[in-house]
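Private note to self, pasted from the team thread so I don't lose it. Backbone tokens:
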């Protein structure tokens, strides 16, 4: 059974845990969401109707802020839908599968090898792993890593073993 996050729940949680100004990687400038989840959630739900299970505000490796909403889709699939915290528009939709043995997830790199790559760049403890199909059809492992500097999300290509992207988790609500 999934716990659905409603807009009221998300808005209330954000009022209690409003994200601070964030230093980005470009010379210490600060970043703050220009668009709240209240504006992003309708765009996310229009893109992939279903139940919102988790919300994360991420500071991407390119300095952009994105809201990521985990959706249990009405079609029975799971998705991570990212909405720009600058524009309020959906910028990426990834499909998730439940495990590395799913027939859609034909990895050439083992989860262990991918984890070692992620941990070499961001030492810490892996809290969660997801198995994703990117918008372009590529496969990736996504590791949530608790580091001494905060929680990181690291995507490793499941075919090449290279780090595809990483982001710092600024806010995490739901964590299901």
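Design output:
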């Amino acid at each position: 059974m999934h716990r659905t996050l409603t807009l009221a729940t998300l808005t209330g949680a954000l009022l209690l845990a409003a994200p601070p100004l964030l230093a980005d990687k470009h010379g210490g400038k600060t970043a703050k969401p220009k668009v709240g989840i209240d504006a992003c959630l309708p765009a996310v739900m229009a893109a992939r109707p279903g139940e919102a299970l988790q919300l994360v505000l991420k500071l991407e490796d390119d300095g952009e802020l994105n809201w990521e909403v985990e959706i249990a889709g009405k079609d029975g699939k799971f998705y991570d839908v990212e909405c720009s915290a600058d524009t309020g528009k959906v910028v990426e939709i990834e499909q998730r599968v439940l495990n590395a043995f799913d027939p859609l997830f034909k990895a050439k790199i083992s989860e262990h090898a991918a984890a070692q790559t992620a941990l070499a760049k961001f030492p810490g403890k892996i809290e969660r792993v997801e198995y994703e199909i990117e918008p372009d059809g590529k496969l990736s492992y996504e590791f949530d890593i608790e580091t001494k500097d905060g929680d990181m999300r690291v995507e490793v290509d499941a075919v090449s073993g290279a780090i595809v992207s990483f982001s710092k988790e600024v806010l995490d609500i739901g964590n299901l």
